[in-house]
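Summarise what follows for lecture notes:
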Amino acid sequence: QLYQRIENRVEEMFLDGLIDEVKNLLKRYNLSLTAKEAIGYKETIQYLEGKMSLEETKTSIKKRTRNYAKRQITFFKHQFVSEEFKSVEDLEMKIENWRKDNGQ
């Protein structure tokens, strides 16, 4: 489901004028190396330079976006401790204990 949303979003970006957006940014601003490496911009710049076809550009953006999403999912899985509560009272007690422990 996530991958399908990424596919759809990339297609929407092109329909909404990503190529013109990047052209205008390149004309108006001296983009930093960091900005030129951003997902979507990097590939579109390569397309405008004739280094990739439109399909290769879209495929590359989709792939980099999927990889980025995977890294985010992995990161967040390891950031939060998941607990299961048997009842609302159990949850409320946990919250109250946390408040006491943290001076709240």
User: Anything to note?
Assistant: The helical segments are 2-15, 18-28, 33-36, 41-48, 54-77, 88-101. The chain has one domain: 2-101. The chain has a mean pLDDT of 92. The first helix runs from residue 2 to 15.
